[in-house]
Amino acid sequence: SYCGSLWLASLRCAVQIGKLVGDNENAAKYSKVLEKGKVAFEEKLWN
């Protein structure tokens, strides 16, 4: 779960950096991956 949370944090950073540098295409792509990851993280690790 620790590594998973680091992965989600990294994706969140990638989204923000993409927005800052104007790379909206990759920001949107990573945002979708982040949302899927958050759902999976909560389903598997929280009851």
From TrEMBL:
* GO terms for MF: beta-glucosidase activity
The record places domain Glycosyl-hydrolase family 116 catalytic region at 1-47
Pfam families reported in the protein's UniProt record? DUF608 (PF04685)
Single GO BP term: carbohydrate metabolic process
Q: Which SUPFAM superfamilies match?
A: Six-hairpin glycosidases
Name the chain's protein: Glycosyl-hydrolase family 116 catalytic region domain-containing protein
Record the organism. Answer: Bracon brevicornis
